[in-house]
Every structure is written in structure tokens, then in C-alpha cells.
Amino acid sequence: MKKYILSLAVVSLFYTKSDACAWSDPDYDYFNLFTQTIIKDKAYLPFLHNYSSRFYGGYNPALIPDDNIETWKKFFNNQLSYTETQNLVYKMSMNDLNALKNGSPTNPLLQKLGTGFYQKYKEGLDYLIEAKYLEPYMSINYVENENSFYYDRDANRKNATALDYNKTIAALTSLYNAARNPEIKQRYGYQLVRLNHYTRNYDSAVQAFKTYVAPIKLKGTVYFMSLDQLAGAQRGLEMNSDANWNFFQVFMNSKDRKESAFVSMKLSDTASFSNIMKRANTNEEKNMAYFLLGYEDFNNPIPTMEKMYEINPDSEILKVMAARSINELERSYLPTYYYTSDAANNPYVQRGKADNNTATKDTQAATTTEVKEEKLSFWQKIVRFFKNLFGGSKSKESADGKKTDQSDDELLDNPNRIPFYTTSGYGYDDKMKDYLDDLQKFTDKTKEKSKDEYWQIADAYLKFLKKDYKGSTEILEDIKTTNPEYLEEIKRMKVLNDIVSQPRIDADYEDHLMKEYAEYFVEKKVEKDTATTDNFDYYGEVPSTADFLKDVMANRYFLQGEDGKSFLMNNKLSDLQYNPNSSLVKSVEEFYRKPNKTQFEQQIIAKNMDSVGNVDAFFSTIYGDRAMRLADFEKAKSYYEKAKSFAGIPRQNYEWTEKNGQTITAKQYTSTEYDGFKNISNLVFGHNVWESFGSPDAESMKAESYTDFPFITTSMDKLELADVLIQLKKIGNGTGEKAAKANQLIGNLLYNTSILGYYRQLFVMDIDNSNGGKYDFWNTDRKNPYKYYYKNFLDTSYIEPDNFDLSISYYQKALKLSNNKEEKARILFQMASAEQGKYYQYEAKAPKDFDYSDPKWSEKEDARQKEMDNLKNQKYRTYFAQLKAQYSDTETTKSLMGSCSYFSYFMK
Predict the structure, then answer these.
(1) Is 702 left (phi over 0), alpha (psi -120 to 50) or beta?
(2) Residues 638 and 656 in one domain
(3) Contact 17, 529 (CB under 8 A)
(4) Model pLDDT for residues 611-669, shown as the tens digit of each residue
(5) Which of 642, 665, 683 corresponds to the end of one domain?
(6) How many Å apart are CA 494 and CA 499, to the nearest integer?
(7) Do both 57 and 166 map to the same domain?
(8) What is the full DSSP assignment across 400-448?
């Protein structure tokens, strides 16, 4: 148990902030508009802001050179490149170096250097031969104890105890004494300290440092490599304060050892950085100690930054703190997603007017005086911040039917049109605003004192967050720099200020975008084998400035009433299949048919009109389906006549092979398979024997008698189906049992293709009846549940709800015309089933004034459920009651009681 607990302690040390969901990466939740990595000293890159891992990114030798290699490169008078030096020091074998020593080198690099190279650098090369001999053994010996937290350690792994200790110490001491070059001499001293440390001869390691390293008055790379080993030995002796101070010196004076030195400080002493501050004497030490304190406790780093500023406003680590602070603000202000949770349950969305600007009962209840006082004051603060950040207008119809512009003030009263961006779920509050204000004051002050243009860039970005686009641009225009990273950031921020400050997107501005900023909107093709570059990693594509600008444009179009363009900024045409709500489909089609599209519309938006086969047939199928759900069979037929060339609902097949990885191909439908248009069984007019959506239709459904209706064939396409319904409707207008049956069949089809029916996939662009979000009973009255844009379109399933009264109305006609008691019982049961659908719709929308956090949630939920059950029995059991009272003696009723448990329960 002790091992387990200690393991968790170590894990928590390295992952101080983590997401509750293992598959979620918080570093994908914002756009990285301000590039933290533009700091000049790349040795501090690991200490930039991120949540995914203990340190930012991984060690990158291209950005953070190895101190040891750079020192060796200098030792060899820069005769070798960095890569060649690295090869010589770390990769080349001991045999190769001995061959050089013997005058017969075989390694190409050593041959190129020539035999004179050994004579010139004899002491250094002899040291490397000795170091390569020792290196395989240079790890600490593992000692098992009750508090150990390592598991499955390789017992046969080499470590320092495998060496003959006395013989090795003697050899190293002799080599130390023989060496004349001070740097090489100190390297032998380093090996003596390291050998004693790794064999757990901690006292001897401390003495070796004093004897062999410290007396050589060099405080370069080798000294701090040795100091790192000394600190490790001191930690072994529980001299934690001294160990920490020495690790601190390593941290401060090395480039590539900062991460390990920081971790070592953390492991040595829980009060490490506070204790270091007490020992700091020089301004440099104090400044670094303040940095570590601020880095470790990042709740509000500005007071610490103020102290660092007083010591050195040009400090590189002060820029690191500023970059982290800006990144924290950006995560709060500019998240990648705005989820479309119901306004009635979202504390960040103001309660107010519905889509038609007429308050519903629910929203009226939400806008009491108390809510106005508590919530609207908060919202006024929110809107003051966001009103111009992503301003815009949304067209709406006035009473006379004309289009008018909806102002930002009106947006306040509409829960579906909140100015973009909001901060739902990201913790924006007055404290965060104060943080932004304080940081902006700090950068404004520092840019006047520091000679580094970094502070001007930071100040301009904070002005961007505060909606001062003009002020931000003016700062950017005045910056004079040749730093390529600074220039790239300045360019990006000028684009942001231009586009975000634009209140409305029209054709002229779209032309401006293509002329000036096409590179941010024209997608670059990324080859499969380059998907591990800076823009990709394990989770896929990293959010970028281009993604941010795409979202801005999507929101602008949304506010302007151009929903089709908004949709296509973030989605493909084929995505409409998953949520085919009519108003959005109509808007997308209007854009599709728009003549004289601008270059931006053609190249950026219309490119997402991806292949769905015949586009006209795709739209016509969706419209025909909606008409069928509304029982307007004549209109459905007119659309289906235009959809004869429908290529099938576009779906993908995913296959994985070891050799080729994942391949994606378009689904090919068989000649007998339902594809969204063809191959519909006549069982769609039948009734279910039992409710099992996973069973074959022949097991779940039973056909009615179609003797009087020979035009109902075994298999139909949607055009034929619409024609059948038109004929049935005509027959149903007559009298007698045939008319009754015709109405019953229409009622059956409408019920069977509803959310409760076996064929619920037929008119919602789906290929089977497997359950999913689109079959949820949505708890919103809004015609469009999307509030900001359509970026998360596939995450928010929504289609127009079923109208169960339509099927009930046809059943009522059948019931009135039929004289067959058994048929009447069947019809009443079908009516009762449709009535259940009406109840489920009501239940989903019923107000609920408590949530799961309520301490009395359980008893309140029980009371609410009891109330809902009573209501269901009083208002939504009409046809069950009639069936029980008048037809309980029929064979149909008895059969239904055996196959339908809830009906059997009701009949009791």
C-alpha cells in the first residue's frame, strides 16, 4: 500500500493540473493566438504555460542546445559542427576512438579529421575513451525497501556497483593527477563525484567535489554537471537545504538541465523555493528565486512580477512569467468551443426573449426581479466586454415582414444570439477582468523601461483582448524589430485586429480578406507522413489562428442571418444528414444556388459543398422527408420526383490494416439495401409485435392486410411511397371499412416513422434505426438550438420534433369509420402509443427548479416523478382508458396485454 500511495504522489507532482477525462487535453481548448515561444532564451521553453504535462513541450536540442556538447565543441576549437561533436561525444564507439589513438581510424568522421587530430586534442580524447568505458555503468544502484515506488525494475541492469570500486577510484584519481588541461582535469573530478554518488557513497561524493572539482577555478558546464551530482549526494545524506541550493545553482546556470534541476528541487524539499529565497544574495539569484516562486504558485503572479521588475525589467524570465499570464487569460477569453446547452439551464446565458421575441411562460418565470438583480448586472459586465470584441448584427423580420438589423443591445435580450465570444464554462468573472487590467498596466509600464520589443507586443495583445483594436494596431505599427518571431507575431495580430473589429461581413470585405489574408483561410494540404509537425500531435490538429478566424467569420454570418454560410465555415454539406432541420437546410441551399459568389465564397465556403452525389437530389430528399413527417404527401411527392438520382445517404467505411493504417472509403450500398431513398419494406404500414429495434423487421413488425390496396408493393422507394400515401388518403376520404383501413395504414406509417417507431430512420436522413442523439426528446422550444455558430454541429443533435397529432388524426378517422371491434381495439392501442409520444415531449420540456447539487435532490425528484405520473394518467392515457373501458374483452386487447408490459400494467 505504501508503494501505491507514493506512486500517486509522484504522479501528482509531475501532473499538477489534469482534466477529469483522460481523453481530454486542456491545451486544445484555446487557439494559441499569442505565441508563448517567442521568448528569446529558449532554455526556458519548458516553463511556459500548459496543463497537459509537467513541462511545456519536450526537450528540443534544436532550440535548447546541450551544454556539454557546446563545451566540447569549443574545446575542439569549433573544428567540428554541433552534430559532429554530438556524434563524437555520445554516439561514437570506444573502439573507434582507440583506432584513432593507434593511428588507424576507420570511422568516416575521424578519417576526415586525420591522425593529427588525436595529437592535438590528446587529453580530451583520452578522457572520452575513459568516459565511454564508464558510461554503461553510470546509474544509481536500486535498493528495495518498504516505501519504494518503483515497479518491475530490471534486476540485471548495469549500475555503478558493477564496477570494481577501489580500482576505478584509483584509476580516475591517477588520470586526474596526470591531466594538465584544467577543464579535462575537472571532468575527471566530475566522474569521481558521480561514481561515489551512484554507488551511494554519499560522504565520499561530497569530499570528492571539495577535493577534485571546487579547487579548479572553472565555473562552466563541467562545474555545474558536478554540482548536480553533489546535490544528489547531499539529498541522499538528507542535507536537503544544501542540496536544494546546489540544484538551484544548476537550474540557474545551465540550459539543458533546468527541467531535471527543477524536479530535483521539488523532490528534495517541499519548502524548496521559499528556502532558496532566504539564501539568495545577488540580484540574479533573487530574481531567479522570485521566478520559481511565481512559477510554482501561479494564482496571481503579478505581485511577484513586480518584484522581478524592480530587480531587472529586461529579465528574460520576467517575459516567461508574462507569457504564462497572457496564456492563462487567453484560455479564459477565447475557448475553441461554445457549447449549446439550453439557455434555461445555463447560468452564463441570459434568460429573456425567445426566438420570436415573445417571452414564453418559462422565460417569464426566469426574469423575476430577483434574477434581474443578480444576473443582469453580471451580464451587463459581460456584454460591456464582448460588445465590440465580436460585434455584428442579426437580421430579423419586423411586424410588416421587412428585414431589420438587430442591434447588440437587442442581443442582450435574446438567449440565442449572445455576442461572440462568450465564456460559458471557462470561468470568466470580475477577478479575471481585474487580472487582465492589472497585467495590461504592468506591460504598459514595462514596455517603457525595457529595451525588448516583446513588451510592446504583449501590450498590444492585451489591448486586443480588451477590444481596443485601434490602440493595439497603433502599438504594432510603431514596433521596430528584426526578430523574425516577433515579426510573425506582429503580422498575425494585425490580421486579428482587422478582422475581429469588422462589425459586418459584406462582399467588399470578403474581397479584402482574399486580397490581404488568403493564407489564413485557404487550407494547405497536409501529407499523411507529416502529421507529426508543429500543427499535429496525438490528438490531431492543434487549434490555430486560422481556426480562430474561421470561427469569427462563422459567428459573423450567424449574427447576420446567413446561417448557410455560417454552417459551411465549419462543416461540410454532407453533415446536414445528421441534423436535417429545415430552416438551416433552406439557408444552405440558398447559398448553394446564389449566383455571382465572391471569390471568398467560392474558394473558402463553397469548397465545403462536398460530394453528396447529386446536390439537388440531396436537398430534395431532405425536403421530401420533412413533408412526409408533416403528412403533406403531395408536396413530398413533388420533391421526391426531383430526387430520383439521389446517390444514397453519404456515409464512410473505416478499415484498418497493419501495413496501410486506416483507410476511409465511401459506403457503397447493395442493390437491396436501404440507402435513404430506395428499398423500403411494406412493413412500414404494419404494427410492431414487440418493441425491439435491434431485431430484423420481420421479427419486430407484422404486416396489415393489404388485399384492398394492391398498389402497396413489397419494396418501394420514397417516390412510390409518397404516391401510395396519396392514394390511401384519397380512399380514406370515402366511407366503409376500406376507407377506415386506409386511414389506419396512414396513421401506422406516421407512427412507425416517428421517434417511437421501428422505421424512425426513414425521414431523418439515417440508414438504420439504431438509437442516437437525433432521437432524443429535445427540451427546447427554439427552432434552432445553435446559439453562436455551427462549429459543434455534430455534437448537438437536433431535428424538428414529431407531430403525434397527425397520426392520431388519421387513427380517429379510422376509428370512426370502422365497424370491426377487433380493428377498433388495434386502432385505439396505436392511438394510445402515439399519445405516449406527446407525453414524452411534454416531460422533456417540463420545468425543473432544482438540480443534482440540491441536497434534497432525491426527495424532490421522487415528488416530481410522482407528479408527472399523475399528470400522465390524467391527460395522456385517454385512449388506454377508452380501450380498457370498451374493448377489454377483445382478442386484440388480450394479445396486447401479453406482449406489452406497460399496457398490461395499465389494464390492471
Answers:
(1) beta
(2) no
(3) no
(4) 898 999 999 999 999 999 999 999 999 999 999 999 999 998 888 777 777 788 888 99
(5) 642
(6) 9
(7) yes
(8) TS-EEEEPHHHHTT-TT-PPSP--TTTT--HHHHHHHHHHHHHHHHHHH
Residues 388-407, mean pLDDT to the nearest whole number: 38
Count of domains for the chain: 4
Do 494 and 551 fall into the same domain?
A: no
Instruction: Report DSSP letters for 119-132, one per residue.
Output: HHTHHHHHHHHHHH
Question: Where are the alpha helices (H) located in 595-712, listed in sequence order?
Answer: 599-600, 615-629, 633-641, 697-700
User: Is this prediction's pTM over 0.85?
Assistant: no
Comparing CA positions, the residue from 222, 221, 202 lying closest to residue 212 is: 222
Q: Are residues 831 and 709 in the same domain?
A: yes
Name the phi and psi angles at 255, rounded to 5.
Answer: -100, -50
For residue 772, is it within any domain? no
CB 555 within 8 A of CB 389: no
Is 689 in the same domain as 824? yes
Q: Residue 377's pLDDT band (boundaries 50, 70, 90)?
A: very low
Widest pairwise Cα distance in the chain:
119
Cα-based distances in Å from 493 to 437, 498, 516: 19, 9, 14
- Other C-beta atoms closer than 10 Å to the C-beta of 844 total 13
**Residue 541 belongs to what H/E stretch?**
strand 540-541
Q: Which residues contact 666 (CB under 8 A, 6 or more apart)?
A: 650, 651, 652, 653
Q: How far apart are CA 476 and CA 493, in angstroms?
A: 8
User: Across the strands, what pairs with 805?
Assistant: none
Q: Is the pLDDT of residue 705 over 80?
A: yes
What is the structure's pLDDT at 372? 28
User: Which residue among 642, 664, 690 closes a domain?
Assistant: 642
Task: Give per-residue pLDDT as tens, 107-151.
Answer: 999 999 988 999 999 999 999 999 999 988 888 876 655 554 444
Do 114 and 244 lie in a common domain?
yes
Domain span holding position 837: 652-764+799-848+857-907
CB-based contacts of 406: which residues, under 8 Å, 6+ apart?
393, 394, 395, 396, 414, 417, 559
Residue with cell 421517434: 755
Say yes or no: 480 and 572 in one domain.
no
The CATH number of the domain where 495 resides is what?
1.25.40
Q: Which amino acid, 360?
A: T
**According to the model, what pLDDT value does residue 246 have?**
94
Distance CA 376, CA 383 (A): 10
Pair 881, 829: CB distance under 8 Å: no
More confident residue, 368 or 220: 220
Query: Is residue 367 assigned to a domain?
Result: no
| Domain-embedded: residue 523 | no
Report if residue 810 sits inside a domain: yes
Q: How far apart are CA 340 and CA 416, in angstroms?
A: 9
Residue 784 in this model has a pLDDT that exceeds 80: no
Contact yes or no for 172/195 (Cβ under 8 A): yes
Same domain, 756 and 884: yes
pLDDT of 858: 93
Mean pLDDT of 770-793: 77
